[in-house]
Write a structure and sequence with these properties.
The protein has 79 residues and is an all-alpha fold. It contains one helix and no strands.
Amino acid sequence: MMKKSTFGVALAFIAAAAGVLTAVALYLRRREKELDEYERLLYSDNDFEDEDDDTIYEPIVTEEPKAKDGEEDDEEISF
């Protein structure tokens, strides 16, 4: 017959092993769902292009040209 302390250790070991297996099973289940979602998005026929995409492109504002040689510029150079 087993001692009470040996039985307690064996019971604790079995409970710990069951906890680890449960945690691994839950992790793998969640990971599989994430991978399924990724594959669904990756291989879907939707190109993620909205047909009602009314993007408005505004012109780029450029700086005024600098003064040419011989012309004075009103701006002072400071260091």
